Amino acid sequence: MEDIEYRYINFDNALFKQVINLRYDILFKPYGKIQKYTYDQFDSYSYHLVGIIDNNIVSYSRFTPLSRDNTVGKISNVVVHPDYNNMGIGIDMLKIHIKTSLEKKIKKIYLNARIDTIEFYKKAGFFTESSVFISDKSGLTLQKMFLKVD
C-alpha cells in the first residue's frame, strides 16, 4: 500500500472541499436522498480526520464531542475511497479517534453503523445498542453502537 498520512484538519481547510465530495459521493449520492451535501451543524467543532495519499484525501471520519462535560463523543461520516477499501484504513482511523478520546478524557464513543459495517465495528470493540433505525438524513438503515474508552 502507498504511504498514507493521517491528520486532523479544520473544516475551513482547503482540503475540506475534497472531504465534502468524498462524503457525498460515497455516503449520500448512491442512495439518492440528498442531492448536494455541504456542511452541517457539527462540522465547526468536530475533529476531522483525513487519510492523504499524494495530496488526495482517500479517507475521512469525524469525531464530535457531544456532552457538556466532554465525556461522550460520536464518530460519524466514516468513508474510505473504494480504491483503498480492505487495506486497514478504517481501523487505523478508529484507533486514532480512540487515542484522541483518551487524551480528551472522553469515556464513551457512539456511532451509527450501516448494516453492512456492523461486524467491522464489532471487531474493533464496539457493541450494539437498541434496535436498528432509518436515518432521516440519508434514508439508510443504521445500528447505534458504542465503545467504552478506558
Word description of this protein:
The protein is an alpha+beta fold and 150 residues long. It has a domain at 5-108: Gcn5-related N-acetyltransferase (GNAT) (Aminopeptidase), CATH 3.40.630.30. Helices cover 23% and strands 33% of the residues. Strands 1, 2, 3, 4, 5, 6, 7 and 8 form an 8-stranded mixed beta sheet that branches. It is globular and about 35 Å long.
Give me a quick take on this structure:
23% of the residues lie in helices and 33% in strands. By secondary structure, the chain is α+β, with helices and mostly antiparallel strands. Strands 1, 2, 3, 4, 5, 6, 7 and 8 form an eight-stranded mixed β-sheet that branches.
CATH superfamily of the domain at 5-108: Gcn5-related N-acetyltransferase (GNAT)
How far apart are the first and last residues' alpha carbons, in Å? 31 Å
Q: Classify the helix fraction into a percent range.
A: 10-25%
Oligomer: single chain
Q: What is the N-to-C order of secondary-structure elements (H for helix, E for strand)? A: EHEEEHEHEEE
CA-atom Rg in angstroms: 15 Å
Instruction: Flag low-confidence runs.
Output: none
The structural class is alpha+beta
Main sheet: strands, sense, barrel: 8 strands, mixed
Global outline: globular
- Count of helical segments? 3
Overall number of strands = 8
CATH fold node name of the domain at 5-108: Aminopeptidase
Descriptive tags:
alpha+beta, Aminopeptidase, 8-stranded mixed β-sheet, 3 helices, GNAT_dom, transferase
